[in-house]
Design goal:
Elements (H helix, E strand, L loop, with lengths): L2 E5 L2 H9 L4 E5 L5 E2 L17 E4 L5 E5 L1 H4 L5 H4 L9 E5 L2 E6 L4 E6 L3 E2 L2 E2 L6 E4 L9 E3 L12 E11 L5 H6 L10 E3 L3 E3 L39 H13 L11 E11 L7 E2 L2
Parallel strand pairs: 1-6
Antiparallel strand pairs: 2-16, 3-4, 4-5, 6-13, 7-8, 7-12, 8-11, 9-10, 13-16, 14-15, 16-17
Length: 280
């Protein structure tokens, strides 16, 4: 078991904390390449009937592999060891703010959801250091990649890892990715993002206190800041718009149908180093 950092968007982090998101997909780099069949086998247009190849270096490489072999335990999971393995503990990296108490020079860490009306209101004091004695940071915002591990608030455990192409996602898995049904009427909260509250649920869901996702036929079209956008009519279509809102500008749009590692995970409560309880 290893402890590794996990970076999520604000909305996806909130969905993971609330248990609405229990899956994440990460693009495989480098991507496998597909070799079309020669002319005499041109009628085999299905990717299952011809070879895939993948090369990371001289040692980690293969060729002539079918799609079914690619997603097997002896495919990419074996040759390109996923960054996260079953049993690994993932700590959520967050964007953070370095504050300083001017009169004594003490610096401490505050997260986005702890700043109300421009004023830091931390739920707990996360001590960074004292100027002139400890390493301190420039006053202001710092990216999640630079968050110190001792300030971690949320932990997750990887429960399953597999390989697939991004367009192969099922309706059930799209819901596990945390997409929101249109009834959710997502509300924007300062420094947090869009959240779903019981009072915003449709009449069919209010008795349950949470959204009964499978009963819905309309799903939110991402990005969420487009209030006039037409709804999607399946969770998978909603996930397509979510995927593009995050990855298209990076060159990994939905239309490319890239290979991804799929990670199932669950939130962990308690101190990770003193025995922990899994959130059910």
């Amino acid at each position: 078991m290893k402890e590794r950092g996990l970076i999520l968007t604000k909305e996806n982090r909130l969905a993971s904390i609330e248990g609405r998101k229990t899956q994440t997909r990460r693009i495989i780099v480098p991507q496998p390449e597909y070799t079309p069949p020669p002319k005499e086998y041109a009628h085999h247009t299905d990717e299952e009937y011809w070879g895939w190849s993948w090369k990371k270096n001289k040692k980690d490489r293969f060729s002539g592999v079918l799609k079914s072999q690619m997603i097997s335990d002896k495919g990419l999971l074996y040759h390109d060891r996923p960054p996260y393995q079953v049993g690994d503990h993932l700590y959520c990296r967050e964007k953070w703010f370095a504050c300083e108490v001017d009169d004594i020079g003490v610096q401490y860490c505050v997260f986005e959801d702890e700043i109300v009306g421009g004023i830091p209101c931390p739920l707990e004091l996360r001590y960074i250091g004292i100027g002139g004695i400890d390493k301190i940071y420039q006053w202001g915002w710092h990216p999640s990649i630079h968050m110190r591990k001792e300030f971690v608030r949320y932990w997750f455990e990887v429960t399953k890892v597999r390989v697939e192409r991004v367009q192969d996602i099922s309706e059930e898995d799209a819901i596990a990715e945390g997409v929101l049904p249109n009834c959710a009427a997502a509300v924007y909260v300062e420094n947090i993002g869009f959240v779903v509250r019981p009072q915003d649920l449709c009449p069919a869901c209010k008795p349950f206190g949470v959204c009964q996702s499978m009963c819905h036929r309309e799903w939110i079209r991402y990005p969420l800041d487009d209030e006039l956008a037409e709804p999607c009519y399946s969770a998978k279509d909603s996930f397509e718009t979510l995927w593009d809102s995050i990855n298209k500008k990076r060159g990994y749009g939905w239309d490319k149908n890239d290979w991804v590692f799929v990670y199932d995970y669950e939130k962990i409560n308690g101190d990770i180093r003193q025995g922990c309880q899994h959130t059910k």
